[in-house]
Amino acid sequence: VVGGGGVADAGELFVCGQNREGQLGLNHNEDVLYFTPCTSLSSMPVTRVACGWDFTIILTGNGQVLSCGSNSFGQLGIPQASGGCTVPQKIEITTMLAAGMHVNLVEVNGTVVGLVFQWGTGMMSRAKRACQGKTIPSFLMAKEPSGVTGLENIKVKKVTANSYHSVSLTDNGELHVWGCNKHGQLLNKEIFLSEPQKIEANFFFGEKIEKVWSGWTHMVAQTETSKVFTWGRADYGQLGRNVMVQGGQSQEVQRSSEQSLKQLPNIPTSVPCLTGASEIPGPMSARLSFWLWHRDGTCGPGPFSVCFDTVDHEMLR
């Protein structure tokens, strides 16, 4: 399940949520409160889906990439669709994908390297302000798939994007990041990175990265020994650990032992209780851990504004 869309075992796509721009692909723009099958794709098994701010990118079993929703920033990768699409339309590109606010990433599997393509102009205004007097790479201004420079000779196995930053994970366990660094999520002294920069392994005790996830303005990475590191913005408890916020005050966002230390949010720090965490559903007795802003009941039970807790599988039935 990703954002407002989920893929069933048989490859059937179910969608729900806000649909003002037709991002659910249901051929209308009315909001949908319950998971509903996307009938326009009933003849195409879906393998992956990525939900952006007001658009959706879909990968089918035969390698086609489709998009629907708003195209105001060229995020659909279909320049001719100036008014957006309420039914998924084909993009001339294939395989692994990620969606940010107004930007998309696609990794094309090859025999030697995994080429990374990006489109959508959501980063362009920030790039212009931060890179005055410098040439802005074309992929930051593209309304159709454009190769990301700096990754041409690197084998990328996963891409992820959110808000105004992007991340790639290489086959040898390295992270490359670019885009907005306002909250220190890119681990760089520059406020904006116009091209991919590698994050040094010493931030993770020299370990290789196996998985990476991107939040709105924060990051989560899991190493080869299953340690989970978080860093970036922390004012809504999204790092799942103790942090030092502005003014020197400690913000408690982790229910753990007395050993928890106050940490700077923009330094990757391991969250011990998440070691070994996986996206794979566990048995019926499994417990779900969460840490997020508790708005409108998003955390489930409890009155916490910011919380870190677990939920029994039975509570999710």
TrEMBL record:
Placement of RCC repeats on the sequence: 11-62, 63-109, 114-172, 173-225
Keyword Cytoplasm attached: no
This protein's record includes keyword Flavoprotein: no
Domain RCC1-like residues, every copy: 8-277
A Pfam family hit: WD40_RLD
Record keywords, A-Z: Repeat
InterPro entries per UniProt: RCC1-like_dom, RCC1/BLIP-II, Reg_chr_condens, Signaling_Regulatory_Domain
Descriptive protein name: Secretion regulating guanine nucleotide exchange factor
